[in-house]
Amino acid sequence: MTITTIVINLDRDVARMEHMRTQLDRLSMPFERLGAVNGAVLPEEVKHYFTDPGAFLSPGEIGCYASHLILCDRIARGLLQAPVLVLEDDVELSANLPFLLRRLIAELPSDWDIVRLSRASKRAEMRVARLDPEHELVRFSHVPTSTGAYLISRQGAEKFLAPRTRRLPVDQDLRRVWAWRLNMFGVSPAPVRADVLEQSSINLSGVARASQIARREATMRRQRFFESANRGWRGMQDFGARRWFMAEVLNLAARLAPRRARQAFLAWTRTQLAEG
Predict the structure, then answer these.
(1) Residue 144's CATH number
(2) pTM of the model
(3) Range of 240's domain?
(4) Which of 114, 32, 118 minimizes the C-alpha distance to 80?
(5) Tally of domains in the chain
(6) Do the beta carbons of residue 239 and residue 247 sit within 8 Å?
(7) Using one digit for the tens of pLDDT, what is the confidence trace for 190-217?
């Protein structure tokens, strides 16, 4: 199966595009560039997603979110052949990424939606399959942030295009798998390192004020509290009731573990929760 690779990049960020081109050429990975959106001047096809004046999203965050929605729209309409590897322009790719992508396609179930590739989880994970001696296909008990790199199916793109007003940054909304009914997976450890360059100029194009950020964080805390039952319900679907309960116990233990030992502990949890 052919994977389409897309790099999201603002027209003015020439050096960032060259940073990505150099890496992808070295890995012999053909790609297309998608021009990122200016959040202050939204295209008509995504304006209806950003109509809530109380959403606490900066123009930069709106532009970033809109760029990912436009990409999903092109996938859903068949203008881009799925599956699609989505890359932001400030990531670092591992040398074995092409091999891991081929292994992913072989191991993923037919109803997968998204595979997160660019941020390590700080919570327990369940191993689904071993991809190579170092990397595993996993389920997350808490989906990590970062939209730096992910693999998405046509079905996943269609689900994320649900006609709802967007009030959170895109990486926060993608954590809420129950809201979009996303069948989400990840690769651990992450084969792509996010945010290796200075802050994206997409995000710099109108930065949220400190007061906005504080109000948004308070809103997110309330939302997490009220959606905790949804998270638990989805977790039991993905893990099974016994493993989900075990994952929550392990998450509590991870929070109590010394920081220097936490990653080793989380790697151990993948073995304890392994599917099969």
Answers:
(1) 3.90.550
(2) 0.91
(3) 4-272
(4) 32
(5) 1
(6) yes
(7) 999 998 987 655 555 555 566 667 777 7
